[in-house]
Write a structure and sequence with these properties.
Elements: H1 31-148
Length: 149
């Protein structure tokens, strides 16, 4: 017997003329699986090759993902170390700026104190002179009052 062909499933239709039997499957006891078995058998090697490619791609993706997680963890750890160093550096810069500001304010205060002392010292002879004049004036007035009595 010849190899079954998909077209063998149908009965031949009669010649043109009066109505005859319709073309229907001759025998369907083997079913479509028997017809498709050679096709799937021919594709089995390709299916297996594709499965291996997918498995290999999955392994490669898992490896890349693991490396990416390791890199991310290393970057985060380094960032935490850098953040601590940056905080310490920023604190040092703030303290230095505050110390410089304090030194500037102290220098300004000392200069103002020196200026006030100089101004006070410059006024001192005149003030002493006025106090002495007032005391002499009171002394003289009191002596004059004492002589009159």
């Amino acid at each position: 017997m010849a190899r079954p062909n998909i077209l063998d499933r149908f009965r031949p239709v009669g010649a043109p003329g009066p109505a005859g039997p319709a073309g229907v499957p001759v025998s369907d006891d083997q079913g479509p699986a028997a017809e498709l078995a050679p096709v799937f058998a021919a594709l089995a090697a390709d299916v297996e090759s594709c499965r291996k490619l997918v498995e290999e791609a999955q392994r490669e993706a898992d490896g890349q993902l693991a490396r990416a997680h390791e890199q991310a963890a290393a970057i985060i750890a380094q960032a935490r170390l850098d953040a601590g160093a940056e905080r310490a550096g920023a604190a040092a810069r703030v303290e230095l700026a505050a110390a410089e500001q304090d030194a500037l304010l102290r220098a300004q205060a000392l200069q103002k104190a020196d200026d006030l002392e100089e101004a006070g010292t410059a006024l001192l002879p005149g003030t002493v002179g006025r106090v002495i004049d007032k005391l002499w004036s009171e002394q003289l007035t009191s002596e004059q009052l004492t002589h009159r009595l």
